[in-house]
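thread: overnight batch results

M.L. [08:02]
morning all. the overnight job finished for the chain we discussed friday. pasting input first so we're all looking at the same thing
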Amino acid sequence: MSIASKLQKLETDIANAYNKIAEKGGTIPQNKNTNNLADAIESLFAYTELEYIESTGTQYIDTGIIPNLNTRIKAEFNYGQAPSSSQIIFGCKNVSSNYYQIYKNISGNDTFISIGFGIDNVNNSTTVTKNFENKNIILDINKNDFSINNESYSYRVNPTSDGFNSLGIFARHNPSDWSLASAIKLYNFKIYNNNSLVRYFIPVKDKNNVVCLYDKVSKTFFYNQGTGDFIAGPEV
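M.L. [08:03]
and the structure it wrote out:
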């Protein structure tokens, strides 16, 4: 084999290696050469994937995404115990006190999930009342429709609302603070904008064993913005 052929094969092998790293969620450098290949491989082991992360009511995550009417959210979580007062699963608020939020609460002997976009009063939310306590929930919100464990519903939308803070997970992100943090287990969380996936959060421990969320789209760790620590679920 000639030197030129060997060099061509080496370039092909390096390109294939980077493609494999990208497929497995590794971090790809701007210059895909042999010097950066070791760091790219190491990035595959930069975190340990978990089945879930669990909040205790003082932790929350800032997604960095401001929702709008074209935002779609898919999430899987465990409702946890019935709360004594409202707890936000995810949400945000604008300066006009309009909300975009999903929250859990209890009414009589039943738990419920309530949702609203651009509403100015929680009484205007759409509420689904069932025995959700300690049960896994697959939630899909798409414009003014949503489903809970494949059961479809519609909810109230105020199409003129804008200026929201970025979406918070485990609590509501208000203009000047955070509120109503929840105690839940989160298995995954996806955010779409105009059908394009912009966040795909999975639960992980980073290389320093800090429990957090990892976004497979931006390849970025998102850490607790509250107090205390998330509880790690089983390693995957």
